[in-house]
Request: fold
Amino acid sequence: MADSDNSRTLSSVTRRSLLKFASGTLAARSATCPAVAESGGDPSLSLWRNWQAANQRAVTLGRRQARLERRLLEIAGRPHIQLAVPGQAKPVIVSTGAEIGKWLSGDTDMADARARARAELATKHRVWRHFDQRLGYSKAQAAESDAQDDEDVLLETLWATPARTGMGVAGKLHAMLKTGEPREGSPEFPWPQIRLLLIDLLRIDSASSDSKIV
Reply:
């Protein structure tokens, strides 16, 4: 009867609750499963646990970076200027001195316009750097990039490591859904099928442990 109850519960969950339940189940299994294959363990589960931690760190840092970027844009604006270019109906957006030289190239008649534009752009960059340093945006951006690199390395190692248990396979499917699905609950092949495979593996595990999604 417990198997039937779990089957109905697992088959009706949303992607979000499925990933949450899979994370909890896999975390519990990886905590008790030896990481060394020779001792009867599943190294893919240990790798999944490390990847999961790296993924959560990257997501947290990404949200922080996004908050700081929004704040920096509110205070300083973007480090670019609008350039009035002869012959152009609309102003051109430039962010470097080289771009100014490209659009305002030509004879000495443009020299004053180039100098004014470069001075305006330099002021924009000084303001941006000042508030960037105060808020720590660039540092947060670098930390997020490093965290994403760490996650990518662990993910590639996870794909390359053979799973020795059903939960090891479930860990790979969980990682695949979390990182690869183009949008939540995508109806396109193979994402519904991958979700069903993950549900099958969780159902098998939950039948033996009598656990349920909450």
User: Anything to note?
Assistant: The two ends are 18 Å apart (CA to CA). The chain has two domains: 2-42+163-209, 74-137. Confidence is low (pLDDT under 50) at residues 1-11. The longest strand covers residues 81-83.
